[in-house]
Amino acid sequence: MQNDNLKSYLNLHLIVFIWGFTAILGALITITADAIVWYRMFFAAVFLALFLIYKKTSFRIPLRSFLKLIFVGLLIALHWIFFFHAIHVSNVSITLSVFSLGAFFASILEPLFYGRKVLWYEVFFGLIIIAGLAMIMNVEVNYFAGMMYALVSIILGVLFTLMNGKLIEKHNSAVISFYEFLAGVFFISIYYLFEGKFSVAFFTLSPNNWILILILASVCTAYAFTASVKVMEKLSPYTVMLTTNLEPVYGIVLAYFIIGGKEQMSTSFYIGAVIIIITVILNGIIKHKHKKALVT
Description:
Layout: H1 2-28, H2 33-54, H3 63-89, H4 92-98, H5 102-114, H6 120-139, H7 144-167, H8 173-195, H9 207-230, H10 237-244, H11 247-258, H12 267-295
Helix pairs in contact: 1-9, 1-11, 2-3, 2-8, 2-9, 3-4, 3-7, 3-8, 4-7, 4-11, 5-6, 5-7, 5-10, 6-12, 7-10, 8-9
């Protein structure tokens, strides 16, 4: 059991690294945020459908669960739209730094979803993370709009992570992801039909955009998202959200070397980011000692 947990935790770090690269792709793809999400969810659903057929996994799911998946799919679509829009109006570093608030929101909401008491150190570390973020916001006021979009995105992210934590108890992770992506495509398509946004131009992308979108949909979505749902069989949503706080670290470093210029931030930004990283590490240490004490 302990080895399974360690394997899930290491796998989660790989997933978070991939998510950090996702932000880079979002910055490099030159179409609107909602179009990115439509393509991302459409191709990810196709890849997962092929995978499920190959594995001879049943697509059948109870109606009650199906309705929940449709709702979660809407949350995911909105989460990614706000995420990519935040990157476009600010940059990767700012957007990912705001995502560090995920652990704080999870520490408040997870007890409500799972009926456990609020742990003081989760809230405490969440407040420290807010302090680190406040330091970033204080010096990077030009990116305030991007921060607000990122804030909405991470709140939606916490909500669908908590709901998937419940759904994975009864259903296959790939099946869950397939229906959620399909639902996201459905809702965005309905919006596009009403707005008349489907056109020849919408489906005419540059070769570079096609390549980046296919990487985004396959590795960064079909694989990473499904794997992130699966690790919740062993890890709590809070642990998942807390580890996700390392996404800014991976993403900011990658952005600095891949994108450069626009991603070079002030000294205070990096101090705030270091505070967030140290908080994540301390929380992991305390959580490990707490679990070890319960076992002994």
